[in-house]
Structure formats: structure tokens, C-alpha cells
């Protein structure tokens, strides 16, 4: 019997990781009913992280917190024992903006701090912040304020929301916020390594997709730089080195705020593979099918499919990948994957925005994989 693990990421804008896995499984079972198939929906720290965790050993819990524009939002966190996973995109992400209206200067991360408070109230000793897909560029100021940090104007009143409010910053005291996280292992899971400031910083790189104009970008960059200067003036000697550290610019600077609170940055893909027990499954299966919406240069920098393939190599397990689209030549994908299929090679229609079509094509890909690499009578393991 051939053991097959289906372990994809989501196809962004089309299907969740679990939906991708189920569609592939359907095709595999149709063509190779004798195969033993298991599913492990995955995430790399961005959108879909809570769903992936809850498809495994975690359980969902609903919370209501402040959304990016100040309105309440209801989101889920994932809980397993004393570990709590918080997905930034579900709380202050672009997808939860009211009517999709972007607020580049005023969107706040306050709800993330409130989610941290929820986890602390449940006596969590490990909190994982899955960072990505947010609407904010406030350097995590809102998060810090909701944990008790003082971020005040010259007249002593609290600064307003977002990066725009951060421009008014005069006085900082992080003592209460730092005390709240004392003794907690704060994990900052992200798939980006941008610093906080500069041309590769969070405002310059990600601000435009959050609706920022050229003038907004200037204001946000200046406000974040001023934030770092005020922190340094307040005696926080690590303020500048942390701002320059890889990952400080993740999630609009929430990564930076997390570092100020003692958090440690981990590559999202590798962290989630460990968190969800991927190694045990990779060792127990004969072949693995992974996937993501776009197989491109970012994939090769260590995103989930490549991170999974690197781990599978330790066990001699072949990895096949199915993508919405593939922008890489065969000689580059062959370094990591036994085979590659792209949905865009199977249709002229826009499958990226058609979840039903994507599902049907994934099922077709599952049948192809079964025919080519398992077969009804195949006894080889695919290793």
C-alpha cells in the first residue's frame, strides 16, 4: 500500500489549504483507491494560519476585538494546551476592512494586543503571532497601547490610531506592556524579512497595497523613524538594532513591537511545519503532494512548498507540487520537486478567482498524480 500525504498551503483568493487538500484527495482516491491518504493543511504565518492549525491538533475559540478601523471584529484564535495562535490578518487584515475601504494612515493594531490579553487571561505560556496580510502600518503602536504602554502626545494625551497618530508621539513608557508578556514565549511567525525602516522597510514595500499614496508613504516612514528615535531617547537601547532586524517590518511593524516585548522571529513556513507535526508525517509517507497559489521566486526563498521539500529530503520522500500558476522554469523546480502541475496550464479561464473551477482542476491533478506516480497496480513507494 502506498501512503500519501497531501500538505498544501492555501490558494490565496480561491481556496483554503483544507479545500485544496480535499480536492486533490478526491482525485487521488478516484484513480488510486488503494492508496492510504492523509491530509495536513498548512500555513506560513499569513492568512489561513488559524484554519490550518485547527485542521490539526488545535481548537478554535472566538474572540471579539478592535478591528483596523476601530470597529469590533469577531475572529478565531487557535488553542492547544497553553499555546495560543493569533492570526494578525483575521484581526486587522485587509480582508476585514469595512466595505474594503483602506485606511493607510489610521488603521490600528490595537486588536492584536487585545488578543494577546485574551491569551494571557487563559494562562498561555506560548503565544504565536502569525504575521501577514494586515491593513496597518503603525509599528505595532496600537498593540503596545492595548497592553498598557504609554504612547502620548506632548500634552500627555494618548496618540491617535495608526501611523498617522504615531507622528504625534512625544513620550513612551513600555514598562507595563513588557511586564504583561514577562515569562511568555512570544513567537513571531512571518515569511518576510523586511526591516522596519528604509527603502526595504514596511511602509515603502507594503504601504502601497494598503492604499498609501506617495505622500502617505513619506508620512508613515517619518512617523516610524520618529518612533524608533523616541524609543531610543526613552532608554530602550535595543530600539535601533531591532528596527534593523529581519522581520521587524512584518505586518506593518507589528513584528517590531513584538521584538520590543521580547518576541523571537521565526520563518513562518518552518515554524508551522514543526508546530503541526510535519516531520512525523513526512517520515511515515511514501510521497507528498504540496501546493500554493503561485509558484515563483518567492517560493524559492523558503516559502512553504520549498520548506516542506527540504524537510522531506531528510526522509527520502518525494514531493510533488500543484500550483495555481508556475512562473519558474523546470530546471529550478526540479531541485525541490519530483513533478509540477499548474492549473493555468489546464484552462484559459481565470481559475484564480473561481473557487469551483480551481477545485475541479485540483481533482484532475490528483488523478494525474495517481496515474503517473502510484497507478492501480504500482507497488513502488515513489521514493
SSE diagram, text form:
Blueprint (H helix, E strand, L loop, with lengths): L2 E4 L10 H15 L4 E4 L9 H6 L4 E8 L5 E9 L2 E5 H5 L17 H12 L4 E6 L9 H6 L3 E3 L9 H5 L4 E3 L1 H6 L4 E6 L11 H5 L7 H20 L5 H6 L9 H7 L3 E4 H8 L2 H7 L2 E9 L1 H4 L3 H11 L3 E9 L3 H4 L5 E4 L12 H19 L10
Helix pairs in contact: 1-17, 12-15, 13-15
Strand order of the largest sheet: 3-4-5-6-9-10
What would the CATH topology of the largest domain be? Glycerate kinase, domain 2
Secondary structure tally, helices: 17
Count the E strands: 13
Overall pLDDT, averaged?
94
Q: What would you say this structure looks like, in words?
A:
With 383 residues, this protein is α/β, with parallel strands linked by helices. The chain has two domains: 3-42 and 277-373, Glycerate kinase, domain 1 (Rossmann fold, 3-Layer(aba) Sandwich), CATH 3.40.50; 49-269, Glycerate kinase, domain 2 (Alpha-Beta Complex), CATH 3.90.1510. The chain is 38% helix and 19% strand. The chain is built from 17 helices and 13 strands. It has helices spanning 17-31, 49-54, 88-92, 110-121, 141-146, 162-166, 175-180, 202-206, 214-233, 239-244, 254-260, 268-275, 278-284, 297-300, 304-314, 330-333, 355-373; strands spanning 3-6, 36-39, 59-66, 72-80, 83-87, 126-131, 150-152, 171-173, 185-190, 264-267, 287-295, 318-326, 339-342. Strands 3-4-5-6-9-10 form a six-stranded mixed sheet. A hairpin with a 2-residue loop joins strand 4 and strand 5 (83-87). Helix 1 crosses helix 17 and helix 13 (278-284) crosses helix 15. It is elongated and about 75 Å long. 57% of the residues are buried. The model is unreliable at 378-383 (pLDDT under 50).
